[in-house]
Specification:
The chain is α+β, with helices and mostly antiparallel strands. It folds into two domains: 128 residues, 3-Layer(aba) Sandwich (Rossmann fold), CATH 3.40.50.300; 105 residues, 2-Layer Sandwich (NE0471 N-terminal domain-like). The protein contains eight helices and twelve strands. It has a four-stranded antiparallel β-sheet. A three-stranded parallel β-sheet has the order 1-2-5, sandwiched between helices. The longest helix is centred in the middle third of the chain and has 22 residues.
């Protein structure tokens, strides 16, 4: 699809039975804004994003690797949205000319570095689509009776509990962490200890979207939740909960 999140994209996603999406971006940090919109659009339409491709990432010259547009945009997408795979494509004249001649570089040079990147991307997409068809998503819900976020690991009896304030304080988005300097914008004391989520819903197969009382929408990847400090000696939960659906 072309860049954007307009009516054409929404219509195609609603009409065509899409199993998964691959996000293509460029290294500039400005591109992250459009990518974030795309990921959220796919999430609302329940189309999981399985990989990020960072185009025009680097070029090799004089036995060195150069990053003319900077580094980190693709990595930021992977980390913030919990997308599991990242692929970097170089700037190469052969890639450009292959588009003009109609002969892809994976055909003209099947053993080359670019061909290997596309082959690995293809294998990744096939494997992730197979997982999606079989996978039972991690279940995340909020239990009001014990004021804790419950995380149920799929295909096991394991579950653990998190303090809502801990989850909010560990948000990775640009609203909480300066994307240029890495400085923490939201300080520890800015988040009340008694904060409770208003809604938790799945975002693809790798994250949940948490809406807080102040209107802030936090994207929390499952792998990030797994790394947070867990509550211990949690009382037996009651049945009332704000569940992801």
């Amino acid at each position: 699809m072309p860049p954007g999140t307009g009516d054409i994209h929404l219509t195609l996603c609603q009409v065509a039975p899409l199993t998964a999406a691959v996000i293509v971006t460029t290294p500039q940090k400005l591109a992250f804004i459009d990518v974030a919109k795309g990921v959220r659009m796919f999430s609302k339409l329940k189309v999981p994003c399985v990989a990020v491709v960072e185009n025009m990432c680097y070029f090799d010259a004089d036995e060195k690797r150069y990053y003319p547009f900077g580094k980190g945009s693709g990595t930021q997408v992977v980390q913030q949205f919990g997308i599991p795979n990242l692929f970097d494509l170089p700037i190469r004249t052969t890639l450009s000319s292959s588009g003009d001649t109609g002969i892809p570089e994976v055909v003209s040079d099947p053993q080359g570095d670019v061909a290997k990147i596309f082959q690995n991307l293809g294998v990744c997409v096939v494997q992730q689509c197979a997982k999606i068809r079989q996978q039972v998503s991690t279940a995340v819900s909020y239990d009001r009776s014990i004021r804790a976020i419950r995380v149920k690991v799929p295909d096991s009896d394991e579950e653990f509990f998190l303090h809502p304030a801990t989850v909010r304080r560990n948000d990775r988005s640009a609203q909480s962490v300066d994307e240029w300097t890495g400085e923490q914008k939201v300080q520890y004391g800015d988040v009340p200890e008694d904060i409770e989520p208003e809604e938790i819903r799945p975002m693809g197969n790798y994250a949940v979207s948490i809406t807080w009382p102040d209107g802030f929408s936090q994207i929390a990847p499952y792998d990030q939740l797994d790394m947070l400090e867990r509550l211990v000696d949690v009382p037996l939960p009651a049945t009332a909960a704000v569940a992801s659906s």
